[in-house]
Structures are given as structure tokens and as C-alpha cells.
Amino acid sequence: MVGVIAFIIVLFLVNNPFGYLFTLVCLLAAVKASKVPFALLLRGLKGILSILIFTAILNVFFAPGNTVLFSFYKIRITQEGLVLAGQMALRLCLLIIGSSLLTLTTSPIQLTDALEYLMKPLKKIGVPSHEIAMMMTIALRFIPTLMEEMEKIMKAQTARGADFDTGGIIKKAKGLIPLLVPLFISSFRRADDLAQAMEARCYRGDINRTRMNELKMKRPDYATALILSVFAACVIAINIFFELL
Amino acid sequence: MHNEEMIKTDKLVYKYIRIDENNEEHSLTALNGIDVHTRKGEFVAILGRNGSGKSTLAKHINALLLPTKGAIWVNRFDTREEANTWEIRRKVGMVFQNPDNQLIATIVEEDIAFGPENLGMPSAMIRKSVDDALTAVNMSAFSLSEPHKLSGGQKQRVAIAGILAMKPNCIVLDEPTAMLDPSGRREVIDTVLRLNKEDGISIILITHFMEEAVRANRVIVLDKGAVVLDGTPRQVFSRVETMKGLHLDVPMAAEISHRLAAEAHRTQNIESVNGNAEHTRTSNERSPRKFNLPDSVLTIDELITALSPYRPQSHTARPSPHEAPPPHRNPILEVRHLTYVYNPSTVYEKKALDDVSLTICRGEFVGIIGHTGSGKSTLIQTFNALLKPSRGDVLLNGEDIFADKKKLRSVRQKVGLVFQYPEHQLFEMTVMKDVSFGPLSMGLSASEARERAVQALLACGVTEDMFEKSPFDLSGGQKRRAAIAGVLAMQPKILVLDEPTAGLDPRGRDGILRRVKGMLKTFDMTVVLVSHSMEDVAALADRVIVMNDGRIAFNDVPQNVFCHHKELEAIGLASPQAASLMRGLNANGWAVDPNIFTAEDAYKAIHNAITLS
Q1: Parallel/antiparallel/unpaired status of strands B77-78 and B365-369
Q2: Which of A217, B292, B341, B413 is most buried by its number of CB atoms within 10 A?
């Protein structure tokens, strides 16, 4: 996980074409190593295609720049704008592929465990790391359940004549009351039930708790860390090299 | 069976204290001096209507609640001592009603590990207990699944495994099957029985289903926070009058045998008053007056055996002629070649409906049955255009409901759909406002909406004193009825109800079904009832549609459907108990009509058969 965060940061540091090429190659190598089918990653990209195009267009039209390639009325398309748009799109693609690589290879529990582990030092200054991690686990667990519930309530209220689609903003906001009130009530009920179920299973916070799958740094983990550091160093080196040119 | 003490209570009292907006205290006595004593290895079923204190008692066993007065000892540990809490919870696990609200982790095995992790077991040991627990509930194949993708019965088995992994000696289950379909219910109860028999784990099962209670060693009946009956299922269910007085059911066989015996007893008394009892007894060997059924009949087979000495001397079984389906009246809703595919052209593609055609006529009461995933919920959602079929048409009064998008709202008003657990959709400050929501959004004036709301509420049995209450202050059954009124107030031409009785106690169940039947006439409506319960459908419906795997398996009058009992069982549905009883008697040479679906009719038929001979 740390790797991915580092990757994201590095990604934003990159500011020249060769850097991108290098990152892309490294990422492809990582994909190969993870054995995640490439098609699956591409499908993930499909979902954000519209956002991708939208940001690209925004960048094309509104990025500041002097080298005007084409101008029409007040709209100017500049070289810098095009380059920036391309960079942005590529950056987003890499970002999505990188992070879906993480979610596809690592279970949410492992992620929250890792988070708890990383935040351990913060505990000394009063950050409740275990509680935060537990909250994330529960949130992840209940997202699909609540989505299902929302769909159900929406259908039921539609059957009672509620209307979630038409009307102005105020009417729409008002129309959400029949959806939100039951959803909140049921969430509270769920929270209450869950708290009891957890207590009944001897949950008492972090006291004397062990894990079935302990997180330990093993050889591959160290290797990954090393590779990532080298990767980051290379990217920075390339950056500096081009700046000097 | 061990003789060691498992749970002991001493005049246990618990009061819920609620402080309202005006800072006034309201207390509600949930448990009122309970004395219960159970032994290790026992399977105890606790019965009682809603609000009788069952759940409150269960939470005491796990030290989730502490007594207001009196005391409770679990495994000889006093729950009032805080130091004992963890030892008690380790040894006594608890499974709750809602399968969704007790699973914590995003992966099954991680969830099961949650308990042992809290106990601080070493990792390797956790691994082993998780695997053992999964095997014990037959869920090993799902160890890496996500909980929200499992069925209700599977989720409850995961919840049981989560407790087993902590190596308890007692499991308390608080209505674990209330939200499940019949096959899920069977899965859970079979698992629980096996754990009790094979591993000697004590079971305390709270339930509304008498057929589950029958399988226990011992039944305790609670009412108003006190123990009313306590004994073996045989002893408890022979007290038919007491049970009915508490608004509880008894198994059908027990009820029929009890009524036959009571009737025989009554006639006997009349005879003896007339002074010729002696004479009749000698002259008429097989008369019902010499009727002497054992007081403790639990199952249908027992009843058939018990009745065999009284078999009437008529000759052959007389199977009633198959009734012709009722002549087609005016069709109101027609479904033609309907196919519905979820998530088309993805890996999750699933055909929920496959070329379904059916007609529903004006004024009909149609029952739809099928197990979870048979496509019945999808089907009824196409009735009011909530789902648009992938192929095929839905015609309302001969018009395609999807033809004009602007008319969708009027379609939804004509076809009122009451979802499962409709009370979860209540949202207004008062019952009246909530029920008026439908009529108001149809564009009716405030006074008209109110008028309709009042009418609907009264028809659903919600009395005037509740109109201005908050819907959240009503009891479970009242909430359900208010929610149904919310749809009824739109005065639909067709009322579609999806499992309207799920999760209610027997009294709530009967209340709703009786009223739905009444509405048919009062509002000149057509009713479609979706249910798991054969009994309900058989007793009420004019026609039964059986769904299986997205197709219609049967579509006929109840007699012609339930006579296919073998085919029904093959798709995981059982025919009504009364029908099984009649078939059993028939096989034993009784000349009774096999097409009987209610306990009442079954009683009459047996009574007549005996008296006539």
C-alpha cells in the first residue's frame, strides 16, 4: 500500500515525456508480476473514460499558454494546453491502473490492517489507529448493503408515487426526504445491532487482540520496498536531468 | 445429557427506561420476575408473542443487559460481576435476527476470526478454529466469499460459525430464521440441531415457528415478562387453549387432535346428562363418543396413527374430482412472453425471468409462491413498471404500460406494490402524514388525501388514536399495517403484496391476511400475494402460480396445484400441512377429500367422517 501511495506521489512529480515512458514500463512490469489480467484493468479504465475526456478537454481549452495553435473567437488552443491535457490523461490512467492493481491484489481487510500498522506510531500521540481501521472495515463491509437498501427504498417510494427524477433543485432535494429518512433510520438500527453483535463476540477495542493473519514484513515485502525506492530515485533523476538540459 | 446447570435466573426483572423530550422517565417492565433453570446440552425453545420479553431474556444470557432486580447465572457465573462478562460471552454466543447486521468483516473467514481475535488467541490457533467452524456449518467452500453475496441462510450459518470459533458451550439464537425463506430456515435449524446432538452444545432458540419449537427438548413460553408454560414440546403443545389465549400457534396436528377430543368430550357429557351414556357406548363401538386420543400429538404422522382406530368403515377413498379452473373473467393485467435479464452482457448476467406469460383477472386473489431466486420479486416489479423487461409486454387493461413514459405514474398508482418489510419505508412525523404521502403525490387535495388515508388506515386495522402518533412509536404489526395503508390509500386497482407477513408473530400474521382478504371486497380490488407460506396462499387464493427458475411451474386453482405434491417438493416447496394430513389419511383408507388446505377444514372433514360412520 505504501508502494502505491509512493507511486501516486511520484506520478505527480513526473513532468516530462521520458519520465512517463519510464513509469509506464515499470507499471506494466508490476502488472505482469501481479498476474492480474490486463483486460480487467482496462475495464476499470473504461468506467472513468468520461472523466478522462472531460479533464482533457478542460485542460485543452483553459490551460494558460502562449504558443497559440488555433484560435476561434475567444477560445484559444495552445501547445502547452495540449501537452498538459495529454499529460493529465496519461497521469490519470496510470493512477487508476496503479490503484486498481492494489485493490485487486489486496483484500480490504489487509489494507485496513496495514493502515492500522502504519498508524501505530501515531497512537503514542493519541491517534486511535485501531478504531480508525475498524471503522474503515465496517464502512467497506456495509457499502454494498446500504446501496442495496437504498435501491429498495427508492423503488418502494417510487411505487408510492415519489418522484426522484423531475423538478428543480429544491423539488429534488425535497423529494429525497422519503429516501434519506428511512435510510438513516435503518443505518442507525444496523449500527445498534452491529454494536451488540460485536460486544456479544467479546469485542472490547484493541485490548489483548490478536490477528488471524498477522502482518509481518517478509522478504518479498523488503524487495518491493527496495524496487520502489530505486524506481522513485530513477524518476527523480530523470526529472533533474531534463531540467538541467 | 449432562445434569450440570447452564443458566439459572432468580426472580429476574428488567425495566427499559426511556427519557422523553420533557425529561420524564418512562419505564417498561420487560421481564417481571423470571425463574428459569436450564441444563447443559439442552435444546430449549422460547416462545412468546412480540413484546413478551424473549429478546430481553436472551440478552441477559450474554450479559448484554444486566438485571434491574434479581440475578442470572450463566455457567455459574453471575452476570452482575463485571469481571465475569468476558468469560460469559466467550462461552455463550449469540446469533441475532438480521443476518446483515451481525457480520463485521468483508470476507467470510475474517468475520469468523473476529471472535477468536478478540479473545487474543494465537494466530495459528485462530486459523484452525476458523476452519473447523466453517466445516461444522458446511460453509468451507465460501471461506473467501463476501458476506453480502451470500443468501440469508448462508449468512446465518456464517454467524453461527463465528460463534463456534470461540468454542462456546451454549448458543443463544434470537429469531434467527425470521427473515429467511423456508429452505434457509431448514439450513439453519438443521445446523443447530446437529451442533446440539453431535457436539453437545446447549441451544436456546427464540422463535415464532412452531415447527422449529417441536424439535427442541424443552419449550418455555413467556408472556408479559413471565414464564407461563415450561415443559417438553408434547406437554406445552397439549395446552392448546392456553397457547391460543396467548395468541400463539400450536402445530396443526396438535390443534386438530385437541379439538376432536374436546368435541368428543362435550358430546359425551351431554349423553351422560341424558342418562343414556351407558346405552350408547355399548351399542355403538365406533362412535366418536368413545373417542380417546392421546393428549400429546405433535406431528401429522402421530395424528394419523392416533386416529387409525376410528377409521370410518366406508370403503374406498374418494378422491374429489379435479376442479376446473374458474372461467376467465375480465383480464386486468396480462403478461406476455416476459424475459428479464439482470446485468445483461456482463459476467454477472443472470436470467431472472424466462418467457413468462400469465393473466390476472379483475377481482381475483392470486397467490405467487416460489423460493428465493425463483424470479417472483422480479416478476411483480414489472407489474408496475419499476423494472422494464428485457423482452415481452405487460398490459394493464389491455394497454402496454411502457408505451407512454408519462403514464408510468398512473400505472404505479393503479398497481400498488407493497414491498417486503414495508415499515422500513415509513418516514413522516405522523402516521396520518405518512399514509397521505401517496395520495398527495398523486395530486389529490389535502382533504381528499386525508379521507383516503383514514379509509385505508381503518381498513388495515390502524385505529384512530394512532393517526397522530409517530410511526416509529407503533408496535411491529401496527407499523406493518400502517405501511400497507400507505399503498392502499392510493386506491390501486391491483394490490401486490410481497411477503406481507414476514417476521411477524402468529397473531400479526393472521391479522394482516384477514384484512387483505377483506380489502378485496371493500375496495373492489384484485390482489396478488407473494408468499413462502403454502398455508397462507392455499387458504386465501383463488389461483396459485408457482415460480421456479424464472419460469411458471404451475398456474391453476389451489386444488390442482397442491395435488402435485411430489413435483412441488422437488423444487423445494412443501404442500400445506393439512393437505399432507388428508393424503396420509387417504392412504390409510379414510374417505376424506384430499383437497383440503386449512386446519379448520381438515378438522371438519375428520369430524364428519367419524360421525357419519
Answers
A1: unpaired
A2: B413
What is the mean pLDDT of each successive set of 10 residues along chain B, which is 613 residues long? 80 86 81 91 92 90 91 91 89 91 89 90 90 92 88 92 93 91 88 93 92 92 92 90 88 87 75 51 44 75 84 57 60 91 77 91 92 87 90 90 83 91 89 92 90 92 90 86 92 92 83 86 90 83 91 89 85 82 85 82 86 68
What are the Cα distances from residue B251, in Å, to B70, B505, B573? Answer: 34, 14, 19
Q: Are residues B433 and B549 in the same domain?
A: yes
Residues B36 and B98 in one domain: yes
Quote ipTM for the complex: 0.81
Listing DSSP states for B108-123 in one string gives HHHHHHHHHHHHT--H
What total number of domains does chain B contain?
3
The DSSP element (H or E) to which B530 belongs, if any, is strand B526-531
Measure A227 CA to nearest chain B CA, in Å: 30
Q: Which of A144, A145, A161 sits opposite B441 (nearest CB)?
A: A161
Cα B333 from Cα B399, distance rounded (Å): 9
CB-CB neighbors (< 8 A) of B102 in chain A: 193-194, 197
Chain B residues closer than 8 Å to A197 by CB? 94, 96, 101-102, 104, 159
Question: Do B551 and B595 belong to one domain?
Answer: no
Q: Are B19 and B28 in contact (CB under 8 A)?
A: no
**Interface mutation target, options B66, B110, B435, chain A, most CBs of A under 10 Å:** B110
Q: Tell me the C-alpha distance between B258 and B264, whole Å.
A: 10
DSSP class of residue B471? G
Alpha carbon distance B153, B164 (integer Å): 16
The string of DSSP letters for B236-264 reads HHT-HHHHHHTT----HHHHHHHHHHHHH
**Where do the domains of chain A lie?**
1-106+219-245
SS3 A153: helix
Single-letter code of the amino acid located at B529: L
pTM: 0.80
Q: Which of A177, A202, A212 is closest, CB to CB, to B123? A: A212
Q: What is the CATH number of the domain that holds B239?
A: 3.40.50.300
With CA atoms as reference, the chain B residue closest to A141 would be: B106
Q: State whether A182 and B148 contact (CB < 8 Å).
A: no
Residues of A in contact with B159 (CB under 8 A): 197
Tell me if A212 and B109 make a contact (CB, 8 A cut-off): yes
Report the phi/psi class of residue A123: left, alpha or beta, with left for phi > 0 and alpha for psi in -120 to 50. Answer: alpha
Query: Do B230 and B259 belong to one domain?
Result: no
Using alpha carbons, select from B227, B208, B204 the residue that is nearest to residue B216: B204
CA-to-CA dists, residue B596 to B66, B316, B528, B583, B591, angstroms: 49, 18, 22, 9, 13
Determine the structural domain holding residue B467 and report its residue range: 331-562
Inter-chain CB proximity B419 and A137 less than 8 Å: no
Q: Are residues B58 and B125 in the same domain?
A: yes
**Domain's final residue, options B191, B211, B246:** B246
Q: What is the 3-state secondary structure (H, E, C) of B54-92?
A: HHHHHHHHCCCCCCCEEEEEECCEECCCHHHHHHHHHHE
Cα B261 to Cα A68: distance, rounded to the nearest angstrom: 102
Residue B428 belongs to some domain of the structure: yes
* Nine cell digits for residue B99: 443476518
d(CA A221, CA B354): 51
Contact (Cβ atoms closer than 8 angstroms) between residue B456 and residue B435:
yes
